[in-house]
Amino acid sequence: MAWSIAQVARMSGVTSRTLRHYDGIGLLTPAYVGDNGYRYYEQEQLLRLQQILVLREVGVGLAEIAEAIDSEPSTVAALRRHHARLLAERQRLGVLADTVARTIAELEGEGGDTVSPKINRPENLFAGMDSAQYEDEARERWPEQYEQSRQAVQEFTPEEAEAWQRDLTAQMVRMAELKVAGAAPDDPVVLDEVDWNYRAVSRFWQPDACAFTKLGEMYVNDPRFRENYEKITAGLAEFQRDAMAAYARARLS
């Protein structure tokens, strides 16, 4: 049995445009192309598409997906490996869920003080999070900045990397406290806090006013980054974005 590209798009949730892109890069070739010019897919292609989507879900880039699939001796062997990877991801997400639950408990604890919430151990905010899932995308979208950042990270000792994570988390919490206290994004105190963020980013690559503003916009527009900020306090992603834009206008223009 064969399914048209429109049918495969409906059943998989992948757009026809994406399926044509997968064909164009040799990742998913249809079983055949009909006289009407439409692509048709059979069971073998549907199984391969499932593997592609599973690997995308766990953060594998398109460039590595074909090699990962084709390196297995059979479809079943590939699926067994993907299953093991998903089980590991489920465990990681369990840790992440516990992290969020602990943060909620801390923010709502101690008498339910939600006016000026405090985090007892900021370094615990990001337990279970895996920044490696962003690497392929960053490499594709910003190759020059990615290479600069990669080289800078390689120079970190484990102790420096741990300290960096603690400092970054603490800075996000300080921004949350300023927001909850009612500070405006262009308040000098807020801009001084953003200055720490700018200097931290500049350890990896040097953004100009436009790039730093767009970085702040990404914290809101990309649901993955937005979620990290919103875990600390509601509206923090927008506050961070507006503060970074104000900083760019005031100190980078």
Automatic annotation (TrEMBL):
The keyword Glycoprotein does not apply. Keywords: Activator, DNA-binding, Transcription, Transcription regulation. InterPro entries: DNA-bd_dom_put_sf, MerR-type_HTH_dom, MerR_fam, TipA-like_antibiotic-bd, TipAS_dom. Pfam families: MerR_1, TipAS. Residues 2-71 form the HTH merR-type domain. It comes from the Bacteria. PANTHER family: HTH-TYPE TRANSCRIPTIONAL ACTIVATOR MTA (PTHR30204:SF90), REDOX-CYCLING DRUG-SENSING TRANSCRIPTIONAL ACTIVATOR SOXR (PTHR30204). This is MerR family transcriptional regulator.
